[in-house]
């Protein structure tokens, strides 16, 4: 069950991971530190109750947040 909908920035991070980028590559592309990138992903996981990043990506796809 989704607690809250992730922010646009958190969804950008999920999209980058879904596109196959590593956290380091994605943080560079999104012009943020790797620590902030990882915190954004973690917040998205908490908001969606996802246990893993793979589950987070699946939830995001199911809900139409990413393509």
From TrEMBL:
Q: Which SMART domains match?
A: HTH_LUXR (SM00421)
Q: Which SUPFAM superfamilies match?
A: C-terminal effector domain of the bipartite response regulators
Q: Which residues form the HTH luxR-type domain?
A: 1-64
Any one Gene Ontology MF annotation carried by this entry is: DNA binding
Example GO BP: regulation of DNA-templated transcription
What name does this protein carry?
Answer: HTH luxR-type domain-containing protein
